[in-house]
Amino acid sequence: MASDLSPASRRRMQLALLLTPVSLFFAVFFLGPLAIMIATSFLAPGLYGGVEWVFYPHNYGRILGFADPAFEDFDPVYISIFLRSLKIAAFTVIATLLVCYPAAFCIARLSERSKNFCLFLITLPFFASLIVRLFIWVLILRQTGIVNEMLLATGVIDRPLELIYTDGAIVLGMVYIFIPFMFMPVYASVEKLDWTLVRASLDLGAGPIRTFLRIILPLTSPGIAGGAIIVFIPALGNFVVPAVLGGAKVMMLGNLIEQQFLSARNWPFGSALAMMVMSVMLVMLFVYVIATGRRGADVTN
Amino acid sequence: MRDSIVRLEGAAKTFPTPEGLSVTALDALDLDVDRNEFLTLLGPSGCGKTTLLQAISGFVELDAGRILIDGVDMTARPPYRRPVNTVFQSYALFPHMTVGENTGYALEVAGVARSERMKQVAAVLDMVGLAGMEGRRPRQLSGGQQQRVALARAIVARPKLLLLDEPLSALDKNLRQAMQIELKALQSELGISFIFVTHDQQEALTMSDRVAVLSGGRIQQLDTPRNIYDHPANGFVATFVGASNLFEGQLDNGRLVTSEGVSVRYLPSPASVSGAAQALIRPEQFFIAEEGEACPYLDVDVEQIVFVGSSFELFGRTAVGHKVIAEIPASRRRFIGEIEQARRARLSYDPAAVHLIRCDTDGI
User: Fold this and answer.
1) How many angstroms separate the CA of residue B104 from the nearest CA in chain A?
2) Using omega within 30 degrees of 0 as the cis cutoff, is the peptide bond preceding A242 cis?
3) What ipTM is given for this predicted complex?
4) Could you tell me which residues are beta bridge partners of residue B194?
5) Which terminus of chain A has fewer Cβ atoms in its 10 Å neighbourhood, N or C?
6) Which residues of B touch A219 (CB under 8 A)?
């Protein structure tokens, strides 16, 4: 039986077998729930939670501008939450990149032992609970926190600054959490950068700035793009950081979705919001795959 | 003052080693490279030849001394402001750019307009035999073609000086020999000076106008390939360039006598010459004398005979154990059978072909 198969198709069978467990897992625990979410997002909310089995496009309408006229007028608040979430996620990406990119160059030039130690230090925060680490920022930033106390004591300010429960506090918390996610892909591409290419560029008359823009940046861009995606996507949907550091004032998409499911018990609307977030992410991933698929082959060679 | 394109004056550089010691890469080195010259820096690894090259291109800062390029002091100038380009050992082609973009990079940086740039790129690619390859990516090319792109990229902006850092070492033998001849032709055509770094003495002798043999951060000898080979300045040069038989001893009236009693005749032999010296006999200077030919000789016990095509290499020892290597042309193979039988050979030589190295000039 097996002898009928050519070696190539035997090999393909073997690979398919190896992929089976992960495919099954994703089919059952990812595609299944996703299908349920998509279906739910087009159903009407039940009066006391749950869903009513009628087609109801106004869940998306509430967000995009064609709300159900029987209940409410269109409220652009959801779009503004959406935009604010995009803005905070984008700031998080930029800030983590500004921290990680120079650090990656620094660490890449250390000796093998120091490199490994630095990488260990960067992954160290994973060993402590996320919530604990975020509450430490509350202690630092709150009205009676370390920063305000010190500034008051030294007389720089005479009233406590409003540090916590702001967009800034959320970005700070996000940057703090997502630095390792940005660092790893950026470091991987910086570390394998061939410095003779940099030398070649300098040798051919390009100054340091031009060499950076024409050689170093393009050759490390896969790492930057990868890091940006890995940080942007969870940052956009994150609800822990805004919940802890944003207080009740600053709402992001993650909190909004959580609220719809847990407090408002409007599952269809929550599903529609989640689908919106997901479609933004899919578009971004698609752009990334296209861009790296075209150029990545040259850069990684 | 000599009209040189590059002049190094007292160039010195030491590197710290991880063990806390320091290594002298350049030891107060002076060097003049003439215009339109093909100069080769030849030496074993660690002799300072790469450091010397990098000092000229600007990637190594000197501890002391000066570098003048075309009469202008370049000692403190960064690499990107020196009229010098390099062909790197690994080629260092930019993987994210096409062959055309790679080749035109120096022109792009210099602000040459696009149309003019494309014209010059096409011309220089044609010169290295890659006409019409502008659109390819470096990874689509063979090693030899990548080598040519690296060359084209380095000469497109007409530098005053081209540095080549062992560029042929990654190519296979046939391609390497073809490239050697092409490089030499290209150099004459362009009229710019080439400084070529290699550890391959064959390569150095084939291509160069002059060869600088380096060791221990010093130039041991700087001369034409023929003089380097025929008249090495010291024992290091003699053994590093070509195979050699060196006999160390005291000069005594037209003979050099080693402490073990081996005697080597040499000509001319001015009576005043005496003292310690080394006598060099190249393997190909030995021959098997015909019956009745009277010339000085060494009797050796033959240990091994290796056929290398155009000749036989004969490894032997004198009666006192001094190793001797001789090269007998294949045209004289009729002697070889006899020697193989007897395991002994009488190696004759012409005393005029013996090169004397006086020990007081020995730099190592």
Assistant:
1) 10
2) no
3) 0.85
4) B38, B162
5) N
6) 95-96
What is the average pLDDT across B51-76?
Answer: 94
Asked if pLDDT for residue B263 goes beyond 90, the answer is no
Burial A1-23 (b: 16+ CB within 10 A, else e): eeeeeeeeeeeeeeeeeeeeeee
B274-288: per-residue pLDDT in tens? Answer: 788 889 999 999 988
- Structure letter (DSSP) for residue A5: S
Contact state of A207 with B80 under an 8 Å Cβ cutoff = yes
Q: Chain B contact for A296, CB < 8 A?
A: no
* Residues B89-116 pLDDT 10s: 999 999 999 999 999 999 999 999 999 9
Pairwise CB contact (< 8 Å): A215 & B92: no
Q: Which of A205, A298, A301 comes nearest B106 by C-beta?
A: A205
Query: Residue with structure tokens 């010259």?
Result: B37
Contacts of B110 in chain A (CB under 8 A): 205
The average pLDDT across A82-95 equals 93
Cβ distance B31 to B219 under 8 Å?
yes
φ, ψ for residue B165, nearest 5 deg: -100, 90
Residue B309 identity (one-letter amino acid): G
Residue A115, CB half-sphere, CA atoms under 13 Å: how many?
A: 14
CB contact under 8 A, A210 and B109: yes
Q: Is A200 on the interface with B (CB under 8 A)?
A: yes
Round the average pLDDT of chain A to a whole number and report it.
88
Closest C-alpha among B75, B81, B120, B95 to residue A206: B81
Query: Any idea which architecture A78-300 has in CATH?
Result: Orthogonal Bundle (1.10)
| Nearest residue, CB atoms, B109 vs list A194, A204, A218 | A204
DSSP label at A126?
G
Predicted TM-score of the model (pTM): 0.82
Task: Give, in degrees to the nearest 5, the angle at Cα A262 between A245 and A125.
Answer: 35
Q: How many CB pairs under 8 A join A and B?
A: 68
Residues of B in contact with A224 (CB under 8 A): none
- Parse chain A into domains and list their residue ranges: 1-32, 78-300
**Per-residue pLDDT for A300 more than 80?**
no
Q: Label residues B40-66 b or e (16+ Cβ within 10 Å = b).
A: bbbbeeebbbbbbbbbbbbbbebeebe
The band of B364, judged by pLDDT with boundaries at 50, 70 and 90, is very low
**Chain Cα centroid distance, residue B220:** 12
User: Long-range contacts of range A37-46, CB-CB < 8 Å, 24 or more positions apart?
Assistant: A37/A271, A37/A274, A37/A275, A38/A271, A38/A275, A40/A267, A40/A268, A40/A271, A41/A268, A41/A271, A41/A272, A41/A274, A41/A275, A42/A268, A43/A268, A44/A268, A45/A265, A45/A266, A45/A267, A45/A268, A45/A269
* Count of C-beta atoms within a 10 Å radius of residue A210: 15
Rounded to whole angstroms, how far apart are CA atoms B62 and B113?
36
Closest by CA to A240, choosing from A224, A261, A257, is: A257
In this predicted structure, what is the pLDDT of residue B275? Answer: 81
What mean pLDDT comes out for the span A140-167? 87
